[in-house]
Amino acid sequence: MANALYKLYKQVLLGAGLNLSSGVVKATLIDAADYAVNTTTDQYMNTDTVPAAARVSGNITLGSKTVALGVFDAADGTFTAVSGDQAEAIVIWVDGGGGGVTASGTTDPLVVYIDTGTNLPVTPNGGDIVVAWNASGIFSL
Question: Which pLDDT score is estimated for 98?
Fold first, then answer.
């Protein structure tokens, strides 16, 4: 699977929209063996969509976010003291207050699934994992 924006997120953007520059945007390392991603139907960061077993680490909150000329970017981030399965992907999502941990929460929209670049795959060893986003931005529309 190549990097892909979730289609239902695109639908939200073309409707009322979400503000990535002012919203709380988070990233989670993902074990692709435990998450059968479907960017057409997956919509929310909850345990019904992204199983707990697929989440390799805690979340990081993206800082220094920018939206310019259709490109979303943020400062590089660091997952601390990561252990568990190998991570082959990163999911970026908006924390709408549900925290991405509820079974059927519908407040945390999925934004993008990234499985190429950004130092992936990575095998945790209990240390920190730095995510260096692409110099041209995390994604563009």
Answer: 64
Find, among 54, 53, 62, the residue nearest to 95 by Cα.
Answer: 62
Tell whether the model's pLDDT for residue 14 goes beyond 80.
no
How many degrees, rounded to 5, is the angle at CA 41 between CA 1 and CA 48? 100
Q: Could you tell me the residue range of the domain that residue 84 belongs to? A: 4-140
Contact 3, 29 (CB under 8 A): no
- The whole-angstrom separation of Cα 19 and Cα 25 is 10
Rounded to two decimals, what is the model's pTM? 0.86
**Of 43 and 96, the one with more pLDDT:** 43
Mean pLDDT, rounded, of the chain? 86
pLDDT number for residue 72 = 87
**Could you please report the per-residue DSSP string of 108-137?**
-BEEEEE-SSTT-SB---SS-EEE---TT-
First to last CA, the chain: 18
Three-state secondary structure readout of 76-94:
CEEECCCCCCCECEEEEEE
Q: Please choose, from the candidates 49, 21, 48, 17, the residue with its C-alpha nearest in 3D space to the C-alpha of residue 113.
A: 49
- The count of structural domains within the chain is 1
